[in-house]
Amino acid sequence: MVPNQPGFIFATGIENSIPTIDGGRVRMDEMDKCGHYRHWRRDFDLVQEIGIRFLRYGPPLHTTLVGPGRYDWSFADETFLDLRRRGLVAIVDLCHFGLPNFLGDFQNPDFPAIFADYARAFAQRYPWIQLYTPVNEMSICALFSALYGWWNEQQRSDRAFVTATKHLAKANLLAMRAILEVRPDALFIQSESTEYFHAMSPKAIGPAETMNARRFLSLDLNYGRRVDSTMYEYLMDNGMTREEYHYFLNNNLKHHCIMGNDYYQTNEHLVDAAGLTRASGEVFGYAVITHQYYNRYRLPVMHTETNLCQGPNGDEAVKWLRKEWANVLRVRNNGVPLVGFTWYSLTDQVDWDTALRENNGNVNALGLVDLDRNMRPVGHAYRDLIRDWTEVLPTQSVCLQVPLALEHDYPDCVPPFPRQGVECDVTGAPMNTE
């Protein structure tokens, strides 16, 4: 039974990344690659067996949003009703690195409004859900799609990057506003990659400073924070208008937000004098970088993603879990209202060794369980960590208690779902698609 007022949020996730590669011809659907469509009931069993109550989870956007104002809720109806029956709390991940074919990519200015309509329709159909991540890792999505040329539009320009960033940020804001029309007490856990760029030499200080300013862009826009002068010129030089910039300053919903910080060993970078980067490995670590973000935005924090591959010794991921947990406790003990921790994801992932740039089918041993749904050592360690700390943290917490309205507060809210597989409009009514 989930308590009325949970203290610390221990979570995992089932990744629903869907970027396209190869000029849009190949869809990198992680739910498919990892077998979730076939094994979703077993996956939910495993979440419960580990003792996890919170799950970062969302329907596949490319098969659920099938056209403007047109939705196929068949898979979502099965899974979200089952989560509700089990008493598992979803943190709903609505857009994860890709768009349906009819929208194309993140250069499309129609994306924000159509996505907001989808978010509203989702909230209306599943009104017991309170926690959302409307758009996952906006900064990474824009970088990989529009500056590095890896995904979706596969462009490599500052102008394309600014365009993707403003569309992703606006989509996130419009979706939050749409959800709040349905659930005024909704909370938004904005999972965003927390990065740092280290200068390799004095000549690299300038490029590193620019990159360290750029890492904040998506959250600055979402939280209505004025960017610094370098970033303002960068935005204006690359297609953002003054009116668009002031839209973000004047339309933030910061008071509904928990700042989700994602941290991996790959989040810190070395920068050379030419502005080229390479991985530095962990230098500062999660605690130091999270303090940088907290000091900028002054919002409650959740550690929303981390993992490490299980290596040849079999204990590498377990050691990383313990290190990240020590960082979480350090941040909390320093007075930051840190409300949760996430090992991401539940299962091993596929092709993240190439950042989903190549469709190789390589299994990456990053999960709490493997793709045969057998528990990895880190799964056992996370289960033990949750058991040992769940009762201690709420009584010793210096942070807020997240005001969750759980299942029993919405006993009669299940809408009259149509039969499975039927395409529906925003009201939930079946559509005639002939």
Describe the protein in words.
39% of the residues lie in helices and 17% in strands. With 434 residues, it is an alpha/beta fold. It has one domain: Glycosidases (TIM Barrel). Helix 2 (36-50) runs parallel beside helix 4, helix 6 (138-147) runs antiparallel to helix 7 and helix 12 runs parallel beside helix 13. The protein starts with 8 loop residues before the first strand and ends in a 10-residue tail after the last strand. It comes from Massilia phyllostachyos. InterPro entries: GH, Glyco_hydro_1, Glycosyl_Hydrolase_39.
The CATH class label is Alpha Beta
Q: Major sheet: order of its strands?
A: 1-4-7-8-9-11-14-15
Which class do the helix and strand fractions yield?
Answer: alpha/beta
The fraction of residues in strands falls at 15-25%
Number of domains: 1
Instruction: Tell me what the CATH architecture is.
Output: Alpha-Beta Barrel
Distance between the termini: 45 Å
Protein name: Family 1 glycosylhydrolase
Organism: Massilia phyllostachyos
